[in-house]
Amino acid sequence: MNFLGYKCSDIPSKPINSFYRSQLNVSFIKSACFKICQFPQSTFLAEGCNFFVSLCVSATVDFESSMTRKEYNQCVEDYADGLFRFVVKNIRDDEKARDIVQETFTKVWVKVNEVGIEKSKAYLYKTAYNTMIDVIRKEQKISRLQDHHQSQQSQMNSYSDVQEVLSEALKVLPEIQRTVVLLRDYEGYAYHEIGEITGLSEAQVKVYIFRARTALKHYIQKLELVLEDR
Amino acid sequence: MNINIKNYEAFLLDHIEGRLTKHQSILLKAFIHQHPELGKWEELSAALPNLIPEVLAYDLKNNLLQKATN
Predict the structure, then answer these.
(1) Beta-carbon separation of B65 and A163 below 8 A
(2) At what angle do helices A191-198 and A175-185 cross, to 10 degrees?
(3) pLDDT 10s digits, A134-150
(4) Which terminal Cβ of chain B has fewer Cβ within 10 Å, N or C?
């Protein structure tokens, strides 16, 4: 009987040799676990289990906090669009947003043995947030308020509805306020989850969201007054 | 419930989104009245706008996928 291509007698009860060690990754171990379950009622099962446990111990893989390639790729399918939207709405630069998303997933792939699927979304957003902050700080972006004043007049004629106005208004918010309100409204995170991603307390998150929404409200009111005067 | 000048906005958000009890809302309202410099209760406790998510796609998704090496 073979186990993953090895004879039963080859399964080591002694230290795992370099050949086995070279194949230690989450996909392999999960595959091993599955295959072990296919061999009931045999001494192979016991020996296979020992082998499997040895693999896990040797690889120091925590089953609960790791992802397979398939699970990682599912994260790409599920979260890449939302992550891109989150970043591009924050930094307003498509090219840089693409780079940040790419860098974020690269960082997550490197840590694939340490990030469980259930925590993957929060980990992705936290990584993207930190990467984005690094980029913003490096470039020392000029005040968004100045940007706003320069562009406000030319944009007034092109607003078609309240959501479009709000989308424009996002640009004038301080960085942290924009981030937390996007995580809340676009991504649907709970306040404590936003706190985990940004490193803020839940109360601080609520304070910033209140300020952001109040600023958005004042922006709309101010715009309405300007349009009424015309 | 300890409302102070640093966290009253968090309580206002909770009030607007319906997470405070009636008693807690009364305490919050009293706090705002004690600090007129913060603004009027009617304005501070009025509904606030929410954003509706836009649909944006990441067009380089294939570059992110990890393919099997064998």
Answers:
(1) no
(2) 140
(3) 888 877 654 554 454 44
(4) C
Render A4-69 in DSSP notation, one character per residue. TTEEGGGS-SS---HHHHTT-SHHHHHHHHHHHTT--SSHHHHHHHHHHHHHHHHHT--GGG---H
Q: What is the DSSP code (8-state) at residue A118?
A: G
Is residue A84 within 8 A of residue A97, CB to CB? The reply is yes
The pLDDT tens digits of the residues spanning A103-135 come to 999 999 988 888 888 888 999 999 999 999 888
Nearest CA in chain B to A78: B61
Structure-token pair, residue B4: 């102070």
B66 touches chain A (CB under 8 A): yes
The H or E element that residue A125 is part of is: helix A120-139
DSSP A147-210: HHHHHHHHHGGG--SHHHHHHHHGGGS-HHHHHHHHHHHTT---HHHHHHHHT--HHHHHHHHH
User: Are B61 and A185 an interchain contact pair (Cβ–Cβ within 8 Å)?
Assistant: no
Distance of alpha carbon A119 from alpha carbon B35, whole angstroms: 42
Q: Between residues 153 and 182 of chain A, which touch chain B (CB distance below 8 Å)?
A: 162-163, 166-167, 170, 181-182
The DSSP 8-state label assigned to residue A112 in this structure reads T
Q: Tens digit of pLDDT for each residue in A58-75?
A: 444 444 567 888 899 999
Residue bearing the bigger pLDDT, A88 or A56:
A88
User: B18 at the A interface (CB within 8 A)?
Assistant: no
